Amino acid sequence: MKKFILFSFLMAISFSLLSQTQVPVDDTVYVNFGDIITINPLLNDYDTEGGDLIISDAGVPEYFELLSFNDSLVSFKVSDYNLSSNVKVIYQLESDYPIPPSGKIWVMFKDYSNALEINQVSAAVYPMNIQFWDAYTGFGDVPVYNYPKDATTTTMFNMGLWIGGKNTEDDLHFAGERYRQMGADFWPGPLSQGNELTCDSVVAGEWLRTWKVTRDEVNIHMTEFADPDYEMPEAILNWPAHGDPAKNQAEFIAPFVDVDQDLEYHPELGDYPFIKGDESIFFVYNDQLEHTESEGLPMGLEIHCMAWGLDHDGDSPYESTIFYSYKIFNRSDETYYDTYLGLFADIDLGYAGDDYVGCNVEQGYYFAYNGTEIDGNGEPGSFGENPPSQAICMLGGPFMDEDNLDNPLGLCDEGINGAGFGDGEIDNERYGMGSFFYFNNGGLQYQYDPSTADEYYNLLQGNWIDGSQMCYGGNGHSSAGGDSLFLTKFMFPGDSDPCHWGTGGLDPNVSQSWTEDNAGNNPGDRRGMSSMGPFTFEAGSVEYLDIALVTAPGDQVKSSTELLQDFISEIKTDYLVNPESFGNQHVGIEDGIEIESLLEVYPNPINGNRIHFKIPQSNTVSYKIYNTAGQLVQEADLEAQENQSIEVGSLKAGWYILEVQADHKIFRSKLIK
Prior knowledge:
The structure is a single chain. This protein has 673 residues and is mainly β. The chain has three domains: 2-109, Immunoglobulin-like; 114-581, no CATH class; 594-672, Immunoglobulin-like (Sandwich), CATH 2.60.40.1220. It contains seven helices and 38 strands. The strands form ten sheets. Strands 15, 16, 19, 20, 21, 23, 24, 25 and 30 form a nine-stranded antiparallel beta sheet that branches. It has a five-stranded antiparallel beta sheet with strand order 14-13-22-29-26, with helices on one face. Strands 31-38-37-34-35 form a five-stranded mixed beta sheet, with no helix packed on it. The longest helix has 18 residues, at 560-577. The protein starts with a helix and ends with a strand.
């Protein structure tokens, strides 16, 4: 009897819902943090019988403030921010039905992303860890890494950092994301430093944006900043050079050129952003709140990132390459040991279901290529014939722990693909790619997606998710054709590891190089992760990561995978000349260098062929002169003496910046000729 009554009640409700005449249609509004929004959501709603629609109730997320509502209007304030859930306001219609119809007002945050649109790549840049895919508002079902730039085809679905290490109590701290399906490990903005590290969703809302600046904009600003008719670009005007002192944020955040040397950013007085490349996007994020994606303990990281590209004409690897340069600050009072830094990526070449992956040990990159000659079967976004290949190259990673040596090139160790080896400098060696593995969308029991910090950390160390070590051959696991006698760090290296660094110097002595194709795999939807480490991440220190995302076309004489090798070889050769300044287009302040007061130079303005100045007694002295475009036009070493003189007769009329380095101090002066 009770079952019949319940069934009848449910049927009545179902019938009443089916017979409702009021039809709410979803609305979308675009907002910035702090906005007050008043909207009439009834404008696109209707009643099938022509009746009047009246709002009877409204509700907002806990991080918004409902100001008011009446028969037709809803007013709310974007007073807080939450990246962990979809953002929507609900309103109900006045109705006689048991369950009144309700509508949704989707709230989209505007201006929080930007795009690098340079050469042959168009890439969406978000002010968070995950890139190329909008995982932050719930609307991110389409990746935005277009290649070629004006086409609908894409080569990358998403990308993000993983990092983990253990404190002195052996507690694992970890931050990493894949798709934010379970929540978030990272939030926008810098950290507040004091008795404890803090951040909140208000700061996240304030920093939920990117700053895009081009080289052309900087050049114009440098010459026209004092012109009353000059309209300063918003990103230059509001460049986040400094944190908020009232919130105990870092004094210096986004790098800038301090023309007047007062250690403050004043663009109206000629200061300008210090950028890389010809197009650059800057953003900041941290890991201090609860980690609901990995379940790891926060590390207290503040990450400053610059995405950038170099404008090149003609046949150049830079035509299809963009770069990401990360500064990773450990703002905590914890030192982390056995720390690993990794880069997770889901590379999808057009149609995602027919890809292979591999890695190149000597050049330090991993890549995806099509597992079939034709990409896809005519699906939207598939390349069809001649699909490209896509690589992620670790140009330079974290510093290796100090050993008071200039570690040599040419050995079967990190010197194969790292930076700073055999260059005459002690303890400037940086990791390159130290391991590579792949896993599938819905893989086997050892290949599935990680869900806990321990599983993520296993993968970071180059082990399988179950903690077992990777084996050479097959699918890299002892249960899937891998040879347990040959443990390895790299999956599918092909013939790129001739000295067998990955297998500890042991030669597996196989008849075929280890690739997915030779392993007999079926192509599929692949994810990959390369890691670097271990290293000690000191409290209060900073580590660096420079990566190149390189695409090679498939319609050339060489195959796309062969072109990748050529492209990356050229890019990495350029990078290794001077990793610290690679891509720098304008004069900036180097990390670890003390900036002294303005250098007194005479005569200035220059009225002859020489200038003179005086510096403190030093062991080593050198100088550089930059033009208004930030280009180095003259440099030389000087005698170690107090009174100095420089020949400047070759300089053309204009203004310059003279930079003199004496030991570990830098002196600067603006020159006019």
